[in-house]
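Sample entry follows:

:::
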Amino acid sequence: VAWVGRTEEQCKEEGIKYKVGKFPLAANSRAKTNDDTDGLVKVIANKDTDQILGVHIMASVAGELINEAALAMEYGASSEDVARVCHAHPTVSEALREANLAAFCGKAINSI
């Protein structure tokens, strides 16, 4: 488990309007190939500005993925920014992109 930034509960307490994008590893090609599909990626973004407020990852490779989220947040990225970045295929990092896409557009490209 790895996370950076706010939780949904913190956003509620602070009165921040937010949106959530989730993506299950069961829909990720590399996770399927590795037979390691337990987990998900959740992105919390400001509903008005789309700035990423928090990222939560539950996966065996969470510690390897969270650094991209921390970097994005450090530079004030939006979920659209991360969603538009080309991620190599097949990699588990695509799950972070898909979760950002779900936060930005309302749905990911891949699904189960």
In short: The longest strand covers residues 18-24.
